[in-house]
Specification:
The structure holds 2 protein chains of 2 kinds. By secondary structure, chain A is α+β, with helices and mostly antiparallel strands. Chain A contains 13 helices and 14 strands. Chain A folds into 2 domains: 174 residues, no CATH class; 213 residues, no CATH class. Chain B is α/β, with parallel strands linked by helices. In chain B, 33% of the residues lie in helices and 22% in strands. Chain B is built from 7 helices and 9 strands, in the order βββαββαβαααβαββα. In chain B, β7, α6 and β8 form a beta-alpha-beta unit. In chain B, α3 runs parallel beside α5 and α5 runs parallel beside α6. The chains are: A alpha+beta, B alpha/beta. The interface between A and B is medium-sized, with 25 and 34 residues.
């Protein structure tokens, strides 16, 4: 019965009710979107690197090493010698070592020099290996494997020639014009910085920095079927896989105390968590802002209900006359608030779900954002639960007001 | 009208009531009894304490001192929720105006009264239809929204709403003040028609002394407000 009364009462004041509903709808939509994106960002952040037990580089901060080796952001402070890589490979417990060399770019995309085992060992997401949408890993020094974004944005296909620039800017003056790199593979989208990377062999990258004559000589040599005679002296960092992950801490300490040169090893998971603490606070600020927006919407609804109380005195007198206690009046106001909040929340949930379902394709296509549509989740339901709880707390203001009024006013309807 | 029953419908025992304890009491009744089945008319100008008296009888106010018993049972000493439940089951109330929740249909208004009384009506729709007939209202009015009714219609629906749970006590407060003369006479006639053949005790409060002749008992409100003063 109370629900019939509440529903009809809301219908009767549909103008104000629809406005309150819209206001809560919009704020819950913002809240759900922010929460969803926050979760996704954290997830995609954590899944940028997987299957790598240690990252070794020159001595620097652990966030800095993570940034340039995994996120391809910022610049390496120093290089490490090839001898160290060899020592590392020989160290007990080490399963594999993938050296990487950074510092060049191709039309705004970072170039990374590495070995072909990179494609076997580097993983992202939940232990997902890199996969080729076209072609395969490089087997010659001048083969290049490009990420999906690079292929997409520059329109590259297999066998296209590319030219590297020294430095990482978009317009570099010192193009390595005479380095005849050819695209041999295109990777599947991963939603990680790999998508924006051009991968070449360490030999090829070294050759790109040689004199023009030497490069020509090397090309001729390769054409004759001989192996490249380029010596790699140093690399930027190395990804290390262990036979047993338990050894990671021990090996990390050994590397940090390495005699040959100052080295540093980081555990990617720990460094990612530290980096997330820096970046994640922005997401938290967004969440707080959307929570505040929600609060103001709920207060708006409470105001609407509170103003209606005065004109509803007669109604309360009638309810009292037919034997309803003041608690019924309290429940009536609360139920009205609850109906508004619940309808607005679920409409918002559906709207966000629909928007993501429709926008997912476009976001990944245009911006390389891999937002999974996980709005219909427990976390969203918990959020809606919190919205309803907050609505209850805030609606106590008009409800208690109505309770008191109906108690004191009794049967007089003036 | 049957006066055979001796048990009182309303009984006041040394009742005083003041809105503020330091004020002089608004209501002061050493003893007053209204027998069951009686139709009583209480007259007095507005502002003379009528609504206070009605709130006391309906249990939305409690006496500052003394006790009120209804239908031979203690009433004013009950908890407020028990008084609400008692009112729902045993007291019908008709106000001067605005008796209905205006955004509900007529049927929903009557349903609400039955709901709070927790009365199990065998056939509520049938009962409502027969009330419409007796109150000279078209049955189609049941599905109409209360706010679309004329004042006269609303007051008649209010009788149906008040009597739906077959209450032992009907409290009526200035029900005709918003009606013209003709509608007033019609209303009074219908009210008595509906009560005829029932044991319902009627307490009718009005400032309109022209209505007094229709009642077997008349009382001036001053007997409630100034009993022990002066």
């Amino acid at each position: 019965m109370i629900s019939t009364i509440a529903l009809n009462s809301l219908k009767n004041r549909r103008g104000a009710v629809v406005l309150s509903l819209l206001s809560i709808f919009v704020s819950v939509m913002v809240l759900l979107s922010v929460d969803n994106i926050r979760q996704q960002a954290k997830d995609s952040f954590g899944r940028t690197v997987s299957g790598v037990d240690l990252i070794v580089g020159a001595r620097t901060g652990q966030v800095n090493l993570l940034l340039y080796s995994v996120f391809r952001m910022g610049n390496p402070t120093n290089n490490i010698s090839w001898d160290s890589i060899e020592t590392l490979r020989a160290a007990p417990g080490v399963d594999w070592v993938v050296p990487i060399s950074l510092g060049d770019s191709h039309r705004g995309f970072r170039v990374i020099g590495t070995t072909d085992s990179y494609f076997n060992h580097f993983q992202y997401g939940n232990q997902r290996a890199l996969a080729f949408s076209q072609g395969s890993a490089f087997s010659t020094p001048f083969g290049a494997v490009i990420g999906s974004d690079v292929a997409e944005q520059l329109g590259y296909r297999i066998a296209d020639e590319i030219v590297l620039s020294h430095g990482v800017g978009h317009t570099s003056f010192t193009h390595h014009k005479h380095s005849p790199f050819k695209v041999v593979g295109v990777l599947e989208p991963t939603g990680t910085p790999v998508d924006k990377t051009v991968h070449v062999s360490l030999t090829g990258l070294a050759a790109a920095h040689m004199q023009e004559a030497d490069v020509d000589a090397l090309v001729d040599r390769l054409a004759r079927g001989e192996t490249a005679n380029v010596e790699i002296n140093q690399v930027t960092a190395a990804f290390v896989g262990l036979e047993n992950r338990i050894q990671a801490l021990q090996l990390q300490r050994n590397i940090n105390q390495f005699d040959g040169e100052p080295l540093m090893a980081i555990l990617p998971g720990v460094a990612l968590a530290e980096l997330w603490q820096l970046v994640g606070s922005v997401e938290n600020v967004l969440l707080v802002i959307s929570a505040l927006i929600l609060c103001s919407s709920l207060l708006g609804m409470a105001t609407m209900l509170l103003t209606s109380i005065r004109e509803r005195q007669r109604e309360f007198a009638v309810l009292r006359a037919i034997g309803a206690g003041p608690h019924v009046v309290f429940a009536l106001i609360q139920l009205e608030a609850f109906l508004i909040s619940v309808v607005a929340s679920f409409a918002a949930l559906f709207a966000v779900w629909l928007a993501l379902a429709l926008g997912q394709e476009w976001l990944s296509h245009e911006y390389g954002l891999f937002i999974e549509n996980e709005v219909m989740s427990l976390s969203s339901l918990i959020l809606i639960g919190i919205v309803c709880a907050a609505s209850f707390v805030i609606a106590c203001i008009p409800a208690i007001n109505a309770f008191r009024q109906s108690l004191h006013q009794g049967l007089s309807s003036k | 009208m049957s006066l055979s029953t001796t048990s009182p419908a309303v009984q006041f025992e040394k009742v005083t009531f003041a809105y503020d304890h330091s004020d002089a009491p608004v209501i002061d009744v050493p003893a007053w009894t209204l027998a069951q089945g009686q139709h009583s008319f209480i007259y007095g100008a507005s502002g003379s304490g009528k609504s206070t008296l009605l709130n006391l009888i309906c249990g939305t106010l409690v006496p500052t001192s003394g006790e009120i018993a209804l239908l031979d049972k203690p009433f004013s000493t009950l908890s407020s929720s028990k008084r609400d439940a008692f009112r729902a089951r045993h007291i019908g109330v008709v106000f001067q105006q605005f008796n209905l929740i205006e955004y509900l249909s007529v049927a929903q208004n009557i349903h609400a009264a039955a709901h709070f009384a927790r009365h199990k009506h065998a056939d509520l729709d049938q009962t409502m239809a027969s009330f419409c007939q007796r109150l000279e209202l078209p049955v189609s009015i049941l599905s109409q929204q209360a706010s679309t009714l004329s004042v006269g219609q609303q007051q008649r629906v209010a009788i149906a709403r008040a009597l739906i749970n077959r209450p032992e006590l009907l409290v009526v407060d200035e029900p005709t003040s918003a009606l013209d003369r003709q509608a007033r006479d019609g209303f009074m006639q219908l009210l008595f028609d509906c009560l005829s053949g029932t044991q319902t005790t009627l307490l009718f409060v009005s400032h309109d002394e022209a209505l007094a002749e229709r009642f077997e008992h008349q009382l001036n409100i001053t007997s409630f407000t100034q009993a022990t003063s002066v």
